[in-house]
Fold this protein.
Amino acid sequence: MDNQNININNQQNNETANSTEQINPVSEPVVNSQQPSIEVPVPNQTVNEEKKKNKYVTLAANLWMKLNPALRKVIMITGFIFGLLLLLAIVFSVSPKTGNKVQSTPKPNITVEKSPLPEIIINPSRYATDSAVLAVEEDLKTIEKEIGSTVINDLKLAPPNLLWDVSFED
Amino acid sequence: MKRKISNLGVFVNVAVLIFFGLFLSLVSAQEFDYTKAYQDFSYNLSLHDQQKSVYQKARSEYLQFGTLVSKETTKQETLKLLLIRDEVVKTYLTSLRMKIRELEGLSDSQKEGFYSRIDSEYKFFEEHKNKLSSAGSLDDLVDDSNEAFERHDKSSKIVIYYSLIGIASGKNSLLRIEIEKQISELKNKISEIRSNGDKDVSSMERSFTDLENKISRSKEKDNQALNMVNQIKTTERNKENIYNEALQETQDSFSYIKEVNNYLLEIINQIKTN
């Protein structure tokens, strides 16, 4: 078994050596010139790597061709759908969300906000600044606003006007 | 082997599609609420209005020429009208249901009462819609249309009016609850001021009786409005008039609430000044 391996390795080395010569005919022909031919040395390692790569590609291609055509179709469709999903996921993750839009540099706020006029109480009692009284007053003002925005007869929800009379007599 | 592979392929594709569907639903997940229900209703109502014109045109052509072709066209257009009409009623009832669900002024048991009545009407129109396609002739469709009209006129209308008054009284109820809480807090404060003895609060204390009476009247008006629409008989011809009267009661109830709130703010002013 070991001998066989050694033989195979030897064979491969020989093949590599031969193929190097075939693939890289580096010695340029000398045409009417007495200049010595320039030989560009090609590293063996690069050739080996390239060969290995080609070998894997050929292997994958062979494997693909050996597959059942139906299975090949399934793999292709599934791959396409996953690709599409991945693309969508990327688009969604990259697109800015409505809440987190990129904001431009804030400009200095030059509008002067008018502060509400302070309530002037003529002849105030000692309860004018009482926290409980002020809290109730604030709540009542909130309710006042709610009352202002409440519509008892909401016309949006009025019963629809539908065509109920379906007959074919004049 | 080939069959196995194709089965596997189908399985993988179905799984991928489910995953894709889930992905999209997560992206566009939107809760179904009153706003969404109302959009559905508005959309279906616009479709109904469009179909109404198409139906009326087909009907007049059929009555004018009476050909077999015009009869068949009229049958198709009538069927479409009845289908969309049922859908409008269904989506309208759903809008009412969602509005009631989102109202804070009604208790859960009150809401359940409205739901069961709305759901019963919804079920009728759903079943009615499902059987429409089996109608064989124009006469069958006329019978189906009359059946829906009868149901709507005798039962659904009452449920709709009852729900609308329920929504109005629910709005009043929420405001009343908030005001009653403020009355209670203000009463406590006034009794504290009285015990301090540094301010005359007797007129304020007297006014509370009046305010509480107004709150009671507001409640009575709302209950009366609900009773009025609840007692509408199926044979009643002027259902809409009774509903309008009931609606006026809820408006009066609302006026009482407004009055009480204004008066409470006036009491606050009195407390704050000497």
User: Anything to note?
Assistant: Chain A touches chain B through 50 residues (CB under 8 Å). Residues 121 and 128 of chain A are 8 Å apart (CA to CA). The two ends of chain A are 105 Å apart (CA to CA).
